[in-house]
Amino acid sequence: MAPAKQSKNLFNIPNLMLPMLLMLFLVEFVRAAVLMSYLPAYGVTKLGFSVSMVGVAVTAHYAADTLLKLVSGYLLDRFSFRWILPAGLALGLLSLLSMQLFSSSWWLVIATTLYGVGLSPVWLVCVSYLQENQRGTQLGAIYTAWMGGMGGGLFLTNFMLDRNAPLAFWLLLGLAGAALVLSLFLPKPTEHHALSAPLRDQLADLALRLKAMGPLLPGMILQTLAAGMLVPILPSFVTSLMGLTYSQYSLLLLFGGVCAVAGLIPMGRLSDHFGQRWFLVGGFAVFAVSLSCLSGSRSFVSGLLWAIVLGLSYSAVLPAWNALLASQVSQEQQGVSWAVFSSVEGIGVMFGPILGGWIGDLLSARATLIMSAIVMAAIALFYGFYPLQHLFRGKSKTVS
């Protein structure tokens, strides 16, 4: 029997995906607001947490989220997501509430770890809605909800920190509660049957893939490491050393993000036309120079200038980097390949915040920015000299 045709909307997304996308938006809104804005800013300046402790807490969260995905996947294969997902979001909500009730630094680490455990099923449930014949469009919708939530959480929270920080936190708790309620009413995804290989075969395949993509590993790990290093120190750097308000910090993030998004399509077309190599190398190099210059900025105007350059350099890197990754993906095993890429990049996400916080406490926030810039410059040098054409394995260089 042919599957029933699903109703769609203006964006060609099945209507059954819309509640899931809204839930994902709310989850990522709260996560970004708490981990990338509230704790690094208000937690350091008002609650008395050290920068390194905030880095440890952020690292603990992403480590728990990444590692527990294996357990969550196992449970979701055997039990209904209708109780696993709400149970996880309830744990996340209670973890956030406990941050307000207990002020110990080590409890902060425990709470963010439990928060990561609670959110670990979210992404797996979201991708279970994907349909093979429209995977690209639907995955794009999921990434849009993810990025929109993250950007919205950062912007609104930084704006509110100048006015009423406690109210901002209670608002985030309310949004986390709304995501929990929404998860109780998510429609059931279209059923699909995944191939189940023995664990030994899966591990052997994983080892072969990691070996084959060896030249990609430095870029995959180091770029997320460099970005993660900035998470615990950027708010305090902007407010303490640059003398800006949190609202002005929000504007820097907004302008940088808008430039990054606006530049993706034209930069992608240019890299398709001229070749990805120099967009990749040049993007990382300009990113490194911009971070170094930002570390010496002392005004909103100069900070805004370098935020725009950082956004544009990111838009140059992303299409070229995705083309490089896509050249390593086989049509038969796209899901496995992208899962491996995501896991490897997660290593940098896990260790970047703790390293950035440690450098910030030991030296200064400016030193963390400079160290992050050095890492980006090292990536540019590596791919500047490495024969990247060997990685394309004869595939087309054009990836949109």
UniProtKB/TrEMBL annotation:
Presence of the UniProt keyword Endoplasmic reticulum in the record: no
Swiss-Prot/TrEMBL keywords: Cell membrane, Membrane, Transmembrane, Transmembrane helix, Transport
Cross-referenced Pfam families: MFS_1
Family matches, as InterPro entries: MFS (IPR011701), MFS_dom (IPR020846), MFS_trans_sf (IPR036259), MFS_Transporters (IPR050171), Tet-R_TetA/multi-R_MdtG-like (IPR001958)
PROSITE patterns in the cross-refs: MFS
Membrane association type: Multi-pass membrane protein
Domain Major facilitator superfamily (MFS) profile: 16-390
GO molecular function terms noted in the UniProt entry: transmembrane transporter activity
Compartments in which it is found: Cell membrane
GO terms for cellular component: plasma membrane
Bilayer-crossing regions: 21-41, 47-68, 80-99, 105-130, 142-161, 167-186, 216-234, 246-266, 278-297, 303-324, 336-359, 365-386
UniProt KW Cell membrane keyword: yes
PANTHER family on file: RESISTANCE PROTEIN MDTM, PUTATIVE-RELATED-RELATED
Protein name per the record: Major facilitator superfamily (MFS) profile domain-containing protein
